[in-house]
Amino acid sequence: MQLTMTQRQELKLIMTMELRQAIELLQYSTFELEQFIREQEAENPLIELKERDDTGSYDSPFPKVSGGEGLKTDWIKAPNALYRDDLVSMVRLTYSDEDSIRLLSYLIQNLDDNGYLILPEDCKIGEDLLTLGIRMLQEIGPSGIGARNLQECLLLQLDEESDSLARQIVSHCFPLLASRKWKEIAQALQITLADVKSAVDQIQTLNPRPCSLINDQQTDYTFPDVIVTEREGNLEFLLNDGHLPEVKLNSDYLPYLNAKDEVGSYLTERHKQYRWLLNSLEQRRETLIKIVRVLAEKQQAFFIKGPEALNPLTMREVAEEIGMHESTISRATANKIIKTPSGTFEMKSLFTSKLESAGGLSVSQSKVKSLLRKYIDQENKSRPLSDQKLAERLKDEQGITVSRRTISKYREEMNIPSSAQRKDIVV
């Protein structure tokens, strides 16, 4: 065997640290990007951030793209939240003996976010004392707080009406109530369907989540990364990044940049990071602009009319349109929120697979789901449509062929119960 030394030329794609960071930067939301930029300022002495007093603009023929209109933040503000600490304070105001305060404080700390009592397995509280504690909780919290299951929660809310028919149904016919078997309930209690309907109407006014406001976390804020507006029938969009600080080069260190010592080598490396950051920010911005421009053209009906008008569109189609890889589109739209005239959505929700309809046309899953919800809202509640009937109606009226199993899948994704569970009482 003879050993030889040869030279060969080949191309390789190496995942450098800069390339990896550029990919991560593309996936950041605007809020996360701001945090990252400020972290870079703390680590790199050559990076200096300048807060923007006025917003810049990015001119484009159609649609209009600008650098932002300052800080735009949408949020869903929760009602006055009921915190566990507030409940404990109410306990101390209502009860004076330490045994009661200790018991109720323990129960409150074991409530889930809906107000149900979830005790650990090693709990040594006796049943009688536990029942007493739950009864005492009703004095300081919403009715039904501390229940261990849904049936107990409803019974606690019906305590003031101990002889009511609604309480009898919940107490003795709860499985039948959950299955909406109205005739069996009437037969079991020897009452009419009209009586059952009246009692069920009362039960439906009860709150199955008595403490849904218990929350130990702060309100979540939704920060739109892209804002789409309609003006005189035309769509305009802007990247909501006008509040981001401007990345500048700290000129104080420039005299030392070319020094032939350790300081010069250190600053040279930091200058490369500064240039990389500028290039990555600009590349991220240009990529988002290209993607949103295609979305504005392909999904114009969606932006104006809402999800029911969403056209089928895949990431691959957008990638081919702008000459990028599909994975780049996926990363660029990850964790991004887009605000439109018809609502605020995750940007990835604008991509949906295709379903074939009559005449070779394609429809999106969102449109099919919208039609399903419309059919179910308009159905005869005494004879709700089964999944098979819904599939047949879609085919007959819309020319959309969808299997019964797909209808069931979409219905479950929209949290719509089955036809048996949607059936109302026929008097």
Explain this structure to me?
With 427 residues, the protein is an alpha+beta fold. It has helices at 17-27, 30-43, 84-94, 98-109, 127-140, 150-157, 165-172, 174-178, 182-189, 193-203, 262-298, 300-305, 315-322, 326-333, 365-378, 387-398, 404-413, 419-422; strands spanning 47-50, 57-58, 65-66, 74-75, 221-222, 226-231, 234-239, 246-249, 337-340, 343-346, 354-356, 362-364. It has a four-stranded mixed β-sheet with strand order 7-6-9-10. A hairpin with a 2-residue loop joins strand 9 (337-340) and strand 10. The longest helix is centred in the middle third of the chain and has 37 residues, at 262-298. Residues 55-81 have low confidence and may be disordered.
Structural domain count: 3
H and E order: HHEEEEHHHHHHHHEEEEHHHHEEEEHHHH
Integer average pLDDT:
82
The residue ranges in which pLDDT falls below 50 over 5 or more consecutive positions are: 55-81
The helical percent reads 40-55%
As a whole number of angstroms, the C-alpha radius of gyration is 31 Å
Class of secondary structure makeup: alpha+beta
The major pleated sheet works out as: 4 strands, mixed
What overall geometry do the principal axes of the alpha carbons give?
Answer: extended
Ends: how far apart? 96 Å
Number of helices: 18
Count the E strands: 12
The fraction of residues in strands falls at 5-15%
- Sequence of strands across the biggest β-sheet: 7-6-9-10
